[in-house]
Amino acid sequence: MDKHSLRWGILGAANIARKNWKAIWNSRNGRVVALASRDLDRSSQFISACMTQVPFEPAPRAMGSYEELLAAADVDAVYIPLPTGVRSKWVKRAAEAGKHVLCEKPCAASVAELREMIEVCRRHKVQFMDGVMFMHSSRLQRMREVLDDADTIGRIRRIASAFTFYAPDEFFASNIRGRADLEPYGCLGDLGWYCIRFALWATNWNPPSRVTGQMLSSYKHPNGNRAVPVEFSGELFFADGVSSSFYCSFLSETEQWATVGGERGYLRLADFVLPFSGNQIGFEIGKPSFEVRGCDFEMRPQIRRIEINEASHSDPTAQESQMFRRFAEAVQSGTLNQLWPEIALKTQLVMEKCYESAFQQGKPLEL
């Protein structure tokens, strides 16, 4: 392996791969050497389009099969944005070929499937990580400092989040997120994964003791055998008394907020998944005061904003660039970071239990 640059192959020509093509460029310690799809022309067109904006030198090779890419001796790691329904096979094939794996989320179609994927990666001594970009933002470290200082927020009592976007009717007919065979968890996997991950992060990776889920709306593709969630809510209950709620939906205009409420204050961010455009990102700390003076009742917000010098996107400081940089550093260190497969499995477990609860009329299920 090149001592200074992790050599990436991309398995699939999904739209998100365009963003991560540039993120690899901006990581400063990685480069794309090949991209494969099931159609050579599509691979070539994808590479040509990306090269006009982000030109790697030498130009990455186009390949017409995933097998060809996994056999390439000059590929150290693969980014896999393939649909969830087929992802397990190719993650395992990549690991067996000695390629480190960064895959999109949700990681697998079931907990059992993900356990097997992680075990194959462990056995072949390759790094596994899911593609949750916000986990790599410098903002998260600063938020952890605030949550851990015992004074600003105090003991955490409640976590809440929402991640939504409005999808028009044609979205469900043409997009794989409406097909149960390709994306079985629908909005829960596509959007709810982030909400669950945030709650687990806020509680220092202590999994909830029980969960509930409600499928508020669903969609069944004309060629599908079952419906997928397109509007979902969940509740997580932790042993220490903390509770967390989340809402995810393809039927509501874009929201991506999260709050952590404690005994002394609250932490809030309006863009926890995709930072709003700019050269700084941040979050708010609130501790409202309520004062009564005779007939005057006054609520003062007392909000303080903390800013971090980090670009929202398409920059070496942006979270997606940091994700690929951190992945390469783990690989190049020679010591695999076991936190990433561990938290992926915890997220998958909570998501699957919420999903199961929804099919049992919201029955609380223990983990």
Distance between the termini: 41 Å
Please list the strands of the largest sheet in the order they lie side by side: 16-13-12-11-7-10-9-8-17
The rough form would be described as: globular
Strand-residue proportion: 25-35%
**CATH fold topology of the largest domain:** Dihydrodipicolinate Reductase, domain 2
Q: What number of domains?
A: 2
> How many strand units?
17
Folded structure, characterized:
- With 367 residues, the protein is α/β, with parallel strands linked by helices.
- It has 2 domains: 6-134, 3-Layer(aba) Sandwich (Rossmann fold), CATH 3.40.50.720; 137-318 and 346-366, Dihydrodipicolinate Reductase, domain 2 (2-Layer Sandwich), CATH 3.30.360.
- Helix content is 34%, strand content 29%.
- The strands form 3 sheets. The protein has a 9-stranded mixed sheet with strand order 16-13-12-11-7-10-9-8-17. A 6-stranded parallel sheet has the order 3-2-1-4-5-6, with helices on both faces. It has a two-stranded antiparallel ribbon with strand order 14-15.
- α4 links the parallel β4 (77-80) and β5 (100-103).
- The longest helix has 20 residues, at 339-358.
